[in-house]
């Protein structure tokens, strides 16, 4: 009984996700150019194909969300998501720098999270094929809790949403745990901070470990903290620079490389020489 109710509730989640995805494809400008579609179907056909997928998503989403409940709707969703998953694997292998294009606005390349999200969506679509009733007939609190957990899993697998929850958490964690946490003031242009940082011995000491441009920054009294994504001994990490507002010497900049998962300090150069 509970399993059948969970299956019946899946079209609601799938429909909302497909509507969200279709909106990004239909209204997104130039999003198709960043995907693997130009390589797959040609540059001139990439944008029409991208929007066509968005329209198909919207049609299937509305069919899932509106009565009556037909199994063909869930089967169509399964076929669509199988296509999604295959496309993402193709993009990951053939055009590794291409964006997912799943939501439309993100330029982040296809990664394991995007593929994992597609696999999870495929699992929910397969579960929906076992539904006997529509999602509107489900009133169990336990089923609602399952949907909330599934939605949370989709959020965690959606890199497009990182700025709303993951990056603030990372900032808080680094502020609390990294060894350079101290003080900073605001009002200094980021470009000025970056120029000072690039000239510092601290930056030269870890330049080979960095894997991004400025990822995040914040002020805390007399210091500005600037973070970059990095890798240290093959481990994902964050390089955190502490740039004082009231000391313009390059030697005053400090840096620590912190493990991305545990927050443990992996590398903190102490003797920084100017060159």
TrEMBL record:
InterPro entries: Methylamine_util_MauE
Location in the cell: Membrane
Keyword match Transmembrane helix: yes
Gene Ontology BP term (one): methylamine metabolic process
A single GO cellular-component term on record: membrane
Segments forming domain Methylamine utilisation protein MauE: 7-128
Keywords of this entry: Membrane, Transmembrane, Transmembrane helix
Chain segments annotated as transmembrane: 70-93, 114-131, 137-161
Origin: domain of life: Bacteria
Annotated membrane topology: Multi-pass membrane protein
A Pfam family reported for this protein in Swiss-Prot or TrEMBL: MauE
Name of the featured protein: Methylamine utilisation protein MauE domain-containing protein
């Amino acid at each position: 009984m509970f399993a059948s109710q969970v299956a019946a509730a899946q079209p609601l989640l799938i429909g909302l996700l497909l509507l969200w995805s279709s909106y990004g494809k239909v209204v997104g400008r130039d999003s198709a150019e960043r995907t693997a579609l130009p390589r797959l179907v040609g540059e001139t056909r990439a944008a029409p194909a991208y929007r066509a997928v968005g329209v198909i998503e919207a049609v299937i989403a509305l069919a899932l969300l509106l009565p009556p409940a037909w199994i063909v709707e869930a089967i169509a969703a399964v076929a669509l998501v199988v296509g999604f998953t295959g496309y993402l694997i193709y993009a990951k292998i053939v055009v590794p720098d291409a964006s997912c294009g799943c939501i439309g606005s993100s330029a982040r390349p296809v990664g394991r999270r995007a593929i994992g999200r597609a696999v999870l969506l495929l699992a929910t679509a397969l579960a929906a094929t076992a539904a006997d009733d529509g999602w509107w007939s489900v009133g169990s609190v336990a089923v609602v809790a399952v949907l909330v957990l599934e939605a949370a899993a989709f959020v965690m697998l959606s890199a497009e949403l990182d700025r709303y929850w993951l990056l603030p958490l990372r900032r808080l964690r680094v502020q609390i745990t990294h060894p350079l946490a101290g003080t900073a003031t605001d009002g200094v242009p980021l470009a000025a901070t970056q120029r000072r940082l690039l000239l510092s011995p601290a930056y030269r000491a870890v330049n080979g470990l960095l894997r991004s441009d400025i990822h995040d920054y914040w002020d805390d009294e007399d210091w500005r903290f600037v973070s970059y994504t990095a890798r240290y001994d093959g481990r994902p990490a964050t390089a955190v620079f502490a740039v004082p507002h009231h000391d313009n010497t390059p030697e005053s900049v400090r840096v620590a490389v912190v493990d991305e998962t545990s927050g443990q300090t992996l590398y903190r150069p102490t003797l920084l020489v100017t060159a």
